[in-house]
UniProtKB/TrEMBL annotation:
PANTHER family reported for this sequence: TRNA (GUANINE-N(1)-)-METHYLTRANSFERASE
Protein name, as recorded: tRNA (guanine-N(1)-)-methyltransferase
Superkingdom of the source species: Bacteria
Purpose: Specifically methylates guanosine-37 in various tRNAs.
Length: 234
């Protein structure tokens, strides 16, 4: 299966980074197909306007529904298809999690709608819900200038879970937040040299005793989780 990823944005150049690193290799190997679209291509005035003042008043500007609707028609089509997953990155969305990434890694078509200004006219989201499977997702309790950075973060979290993407798939099973694992942060990692600037690799990791190493790693994960994310151990 090849996953098709579409990005609708007024700054499609943001997604040039998808050509590099492992994501670029996934494209070259046919695991992923990437298409970045300029929302302004679906405007009809000489200023290529995509925003207007908010109804009811207020600060800032709101993205108009017309360009979005025409872009949907041109990119996805005019027939309902629940197999298409449309993502709106937004601070008001539900928190994006590893489980959500796992779920999205199994679908064939994902369309990211990257808002700007104060956001997108909500009728765009309501319309999309009548046509496709919609996700309003948040990376956390903070605000970005637009949805592009969030779309890239979600993309990386999702695509790396596609079978064949990672050289060693076993590494995915030991990561923090992996489904089926305890809800623990990953233990500290070390490599050679054993001694560096007066700091040594913990002796147990050089012992070759797999049982003791596993016990040390779990204890370190517990300590780290209790210190930084106590909510995960409640």
């Amino acid at each position: 299966m090849t996953m098709r990823l579409d990005y609708l944005s007024i700054f499609p150049g943001y997604f040039d980074v998808l050509d590099i690193s492992l994501l670029g290799k996934a494209v070259d190997n046919g695991l992923v197909e990437v298409h970045a679209h300029d929302l302004r291509d679906w405007t009809h005035d000489r200023h290529r306007t995509v925003d207007d003042t908010p109804c009811g008043g207020g600060a800032g500007m709101v993205m108009k529904p017309d360009p979005w609707g025409e872009a949907f028609d041109g990119i996805i089509g005019i027939e309902p298809d629940p197999s298409v997953h449309v993502i709106f990155p937004t601070p008001s969305g539900i928190p994006f999690t590893q489980s959500a990434a796992q779920e999205l890694s199994t679908v064939e078509r994902v369309v990211f709608c990257c808002g700007r200004y104060e956001g997108i006219d909500h009728r765009v989201i309501d319309y999309a819900r009548t046509m496709w499977t919609v996700h309003e997702l948040s990376l956390g309790d903070y605000v970005l200038n637009g949805g592009e950075v969030a779309a890239l973060a979600i993309t990386e979290a999702v695509v790396r879970l596609i079978p064949g993407f990672m050289g060693n798939p076993e590494s995915l099973a030991e990561e923090s937040f992996s489904p089926g694992q305890e809800r623990l942060l990953e233990y500290p990692l070390f490599t050679r040299p054993v001694s560096w600037r007066g700091m040594d690799v913990p002796e147990v990791l050089m012992s070759g005793h797999h049982g003791r190493i596993a016990e040390w790693r779990r204890e370190e994960s517990l300590l780290l989780t209790r210190d930084r994310r106590p909510d995960l151990t409640d």
